[in-house]
């Protein structure tokens, strides 16, 4: 058998770790965007041989969350946004 102080320390550490994990999960579920990335439209950039500041016209963005996300595709002619939702009937979109 473990001594009582060792038991107390072990259980308090386990409880603290469990509480921290629950807080991290709650923060992740509450966040709108989990993944943020930038994407280069390689084909468009190669067609016009873009370099330097011209390359910014070919960099798009991805924002994905748990139930919804948005993609902004940039291929030199302006942004084309696309939004999606996995369960549109269950999730209210604030935007």
Give an overview of the whole structure.
The chain is of the alpha+beta class and 95 residues long. Helix content is 35%, strand content 27%. It has 2 helices and 4 strands; from the N terminus they run αβαβββ. The chain has a 4-stranded antiparallel sheet, with no helix packed on it. A hairpin with a 4-residue loop joins strand 3 and strand 4. The longest helix has 27 residues, at 4-30. The model has no long low-confidence stretch (mean pLDDT 84). It is a multi-pass membrane protein. Keywords: Membrane, Transmembrane, Transmembrane helix. Its main location: membrane. It is found in: Membrane. It holds the Pfam family Clarin-2.
Tell me what portion of residues adopts beta-strand conformation.
25-35%
Order of helices and strands: HEHEEE
Biggest β-sheet: strands ordered side by side in the sheet: 1-2-3-4
Distance between the termini: 58 Å
Instruction: Please give the radius of gyration in angstroms.
Output: 23 Å
Count of DSSP-assigned helices? 2
Describe the secondary structure blueprint for this structure.
Blueprint lengths: L3 H27 L4 E6 L1 H6 L11 E6 L3 E7 L4 E7 L10
């Amino acid at each position: 058998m473990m001594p009582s102080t060792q038991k107390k320390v072990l259980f308090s550490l386990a409880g603290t770790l469990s509480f921290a994990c629950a807080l991290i999960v709650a923060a992740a579920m509450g966040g709108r965007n989990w993944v943020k990335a930038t994407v280069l439209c390689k084909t468009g950039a190669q067609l016009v041989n873009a370099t330097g500041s011209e390359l910014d016209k070919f960099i798009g963005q991805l924002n994905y969350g748990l139930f919804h996300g948005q993609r902004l595709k940039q291929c030199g002619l302006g942004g084309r946004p696309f939004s999606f939702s996995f369960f549109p009937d269950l999730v209210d979109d604030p935007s």
